[in-house]
Amino acid sequence: MRATGCLADVIRVGEIRQFYTGGATVVRVPVTVAKTLAKGRLLVGWVSAQVKVLPRKPLKCFRCLESGHVSAQCVCETDRSRLCYRCGQPDHIARLCSATPHCPVCAERGKAADHKIGSQNCSPPTTRSRKAKSTAGRAPNSGPVRPITREPVEAMETVAR
């Protein structure tokens, strides 16, 4: 924080996960701070941690689990919001799941589904917009519209190892 001049209240640190090479976590900081940190290392207590700037993630709809839009603009009839990201089964979370990976989005399209939802092997359609699909015969706005909020600080994810 001293080298970047960043305030502690804009730094968000995720859960530390253990890997064979040591622990890792995701730290969310403003873009200017992330660019400064990416040039060197981050001192955490007595440890000098490596910093990697993660690539920007594409838009992901948490309702239908497809890419290219967010749930506020989703027109898909299928609601997959309660499915596990690992096995595709309902009502539990991927972090606690030990089942075999299965992607319901790819399985529905007849593609190989032996991977987690949203992994690099996953290839769901990338765009679905309201303008592209006809709304004739359906009730307009079947659910509440959630406002999109803008944060004053643009965030960039980084990984400290």
From TrEMBL:
Keyword tags: Metal-binding, Zinc, Zinc-finger
Compositional bias of kind Polar residues: 118-127
Name of the featured protein: CCHC-type domain-containing protein
Example of a GO MF term: zinc ion binding
A Pfam family reported for this protein in Swiss-Prot or TrEMBL: zf-CCHC
Residue intervals of the CCHC-type domain: 60-74, 84-97
Organism: Loxostege sticticalis
DNA damage is among the record's keywords: no
InterPro entries noted in UniProt: Znf_CCHC, Znf_CCHC_sf
Region annotation Disordered: where it falls in the sequence: 115-161
